[in-house]
Amino acid sequence: MKQKILLIFMILFFENSYGVKALDIAVEATSIKLEYIESSNRGIIYPKQCEQCTQSYYEFTQAPKIIKNGKSISFENFLEDYWNAKYTTLLLDKKSLAVLKVVY
Fold this sequence. Notes:
Elements: H1 2-17, E1 24-29, E2 31-37, E3 42-48, E4 58-60, E5 65-68, E6 71-73, H2 75-81, E7 88-93, E8 99-103
Parallel strand pairs: 5-8
Antiparallel strand pairs: 1-7, 2-3, 3-4, 5-6, 7-8
């Protein structure tokens, strides 16, 4: 009887773990081009040589979080340094495809 209860518990537990869904989408690009409009705090990132990309550009309406070499940097620093971003990963919102985070 204990074994049957344990078996049922394990089946239910593992069945729920298959239901996990991704919250964000990650795409990798060799380099990026950035256009930013400071007055509206909006921008566009154009990924270059990106095989996973479904669009030629991705927008953001608020400054994305920036990670450079494993450390968080300000968006202002990124604006001055983005052309040095090699092998950039963009984390996108799953529904809107808006840029949430830039990692390089």
